[in-house]
Structure formats: structure tokens, C-alpha cells
Amino acid sequence: MTARELPDWLDPTPWLATARSATARDVARALEAAHPQEPELAALIAPAADGLLEELASRARDLTWQHFGRTIALYVPLYLSDYCSSGCVYCGFAADRQIPRRRLEPAEIRDELAAIRRMGIQEVLLLTGERTPQADFDYLEAAVEEAAGHFAAVMVEAFPMTIQEYGRLAQAGCTGVTIYQETYDPDQYARLHRWGPKRDYAARLQAPEKILASGLRVVGLGALLGLNDPLFEALCLYLHARHLLRSYWRGGITLSFPRVCRQRGDSVPPHPFDERSLARLVCALRICLPDVPLVLSTRESARVRDGLAGVGINKMSVASRTTVGGYVAPGPPEEGQFQVSDERDVATFCAALRRKGLQPVFKNWDSVFR
């Protein structure tokens, strides 16, 4: 897929110039807009918005409390397998990494899920690499069915699938799927995804529509910040979200903000993205998408996570392990997909949220599948 073949709804060109050249006055006007959309987002993510970051944060916090209360929903990721068939430059699990590979067997999955449940967590995110014989659809479906018997919400982050396969995951008890585009720039995407099924940009871009068309209720979107021009990525992420909300209004979306961090291979992000820029992006997207859940993982430090909790962000991972089978027998951190920055356990993290006047939420609904 080339840039000329991208769907019309994903073209950020009309607003990129504003994002690069907006003034403080443009940012102030955008903050006053009653119903901000693309032009306002472009101003709010512009470098000039740094001078008004406190104003952005104040409005973002007010909207977060209005739509989600003073709550932070919690989840835990569980890596089922580190086998992968793709050559992503930035990933610690890429197929050319010389590492011991493994997957969790059924008894191990049950033990890992039990360990997570003992933390009090009620939502789990099951992760694999790209589709392989060791961790194919049938393997993932069985893991979802097992997890759905123990958790109120089961999300999946894995390879693109067919509508029929997504439908089967829904029947097994899956409540939603996360699939990051990584970068929305087709040329940069081709450079970073050297081989394997993940090299197919179009399949990745089409997956969220298939997810929502299948009957699954939630799709998680994100761009891996640091891989490409962050202004381009922010606008595309917003356009993608708006497109799905218009087309699949009965479903829901979440937005995540992963930044490239240290991993095996030591890939250096070509477009470094600092913490202040992250805060600006989170606040801008909360202002322009006030009722969309915004998610922040343990890639970020405790300081950054505490600062953004309730200020745009309303859902967070906790006590994460990025190694396969990391809860029963934690492996060396360097063997994970990436290095976790916020290593606090559940009790410590929840205490920090409460000190900020925020309520950690372990469960806020019952699955219709039981």
C-alpha cells in the first residue's frame, strides 16, 4: 500500500501545517472550542502548546472526571508466547533475535491466571507475537476460553485475524482486541517491518474494522511513539478513532500511548518522543475525544504515570511482566519484550492513586458470556 492508496479518512495533510506552525494564540483558541475536532487537535499537539500545558491539563482533567469519574481501571498483561514470524526492527521478540523461545502450556496458563487473580485483578490482556505454528489461532482461542472462566474482562493483543476468527474469540469470551498500527506512514512502516506477515500494512490497518464487525465490543488503537513524526501519528490516530466511531457506533475504542523503550536489539527510535510531548498528546486527545478511554502502560515511569493518572488517562496496566510466564516464575527482565519502567506492585500502585484522590477499579461490569 502506498500513500496514494491510503483511504481518504486517514489523510492528515490538511492539518499537518497547523500542527507544525500553530502559535500560542492558536492553542488558546483551540482550548476555547466547544466541540474541538481536527483543526483544534492540530493546534493542541503543536510545540507551541507546551507554553499552555497547564491549561491543557486542567481541561483534560475536568473532562476525564466528567466522563469517567475519579477512577482508574486496572488490567494486567499476560504474555502467552514469544514465538514470532516477523522482523520488526523495534521489538525484542523479532524473529531474528537470538533468544530462547517458549509458550505457556495449558496448565501453565491456568497457573499464571491464578497468580494474576490473587492480585485482585479482574481484567487480563493476553499477548502473543505474530501468528506461528507454536501460537496459532486455536492456541489463542483456547487461552481466551480458559481466561474467560476466571476474569470479568479478557482482552487480546495478537496478530490480525479474519472476521470469522474474531467472532470465535467473542464466543470464547473475549471482550476486545488491541492492535497497534505502530506507524501510520506506509513508507516508514515498510522500512521498520523487514519481513513476515506484519509487513502487510493494509492487513494491519483493516484489522480494527474486522474486530468491530465481528461482534467484539472494543478495539484498542495506538501508534508506537518514536517510530515516526509524532504530529503525523497523532493526527492519524485521531482520524482512525473518529472513522471507527462513525462506522461502528455500537462498539467502543481505547487509545494507548506506547513509547519506544529499551529492548533486545537496542533499536534507537528515529523520532525521540519525550515525556512533555507525551503529556501534551494525552491531554490533546482527551480534549478532542472526551469519552474515549485513554490507556497508559508500565513502559512509563512511576512519576509519569502518577502525573497523568486522572489527567486524560483513565486506564492503566499494573504489576506487569513482559516475559512469558512472568507471574509464577519471573524471568530476567532483559528477556521480556521490553523493559518495564513502573515496577510497583498492585498495593503500592493503588495506594499512590488513592493519595491523588483517585479510585482504582478492578471490575465495573459482568461479562454477558457467563
Walk me through what this model shows.
By secondary structure, the chain is α/β, with parallel strands linked by helices. It has a single domain, classed as Alpha-Beta Barrel (TIM Barrel). 39% of the residues lie in helices and 11% in strands. It is built from 13 helices and nine strands. The chain has an eight-stranded parallel beta barrel, surrounded by four helices. The termini are far apart. The model has no long low-confidence stretch (mean pLDDT 93).
Spatial arrangement of strands, main beta sheet: 1-2-3-4-5-6-7-8
Domain count: the total is 1
* DSSP strand content: 5-15%
- Using the alpha-carbon principal axes, give the shape: globular
What is the CATH class? Answer: Alpha Beta
CATH homologous superfamily caption: Aldolase class I
Low confidence ranges = none
What level of helicity do the residues show?
25-40%
Structural class by secondary-structure content: alpha/beta
What is the first-to-last residue Cα distance? Answer: 41 Å
**Could you give the order of the helices and strands?**
HHHHEHEHEHEHHEHEHEHEHE
Question: How many strands in all?
Answer: 9
Task: Characterize the largest beta sheet: strand count, sense, and whether it forms a barrel.
Answer: 8 strands, parallel, barrel
Looking at the structure, the CATH topology is TIM Barrel
Number of distinct helices: 13
What is the CATH architecture assignment? Alpha-Beta Barrel
Oligomerization status of the protein chains: single chain
Overall mean pLDDT stands at 93
- Determine Rg (CA atoms, Å): 19 Å
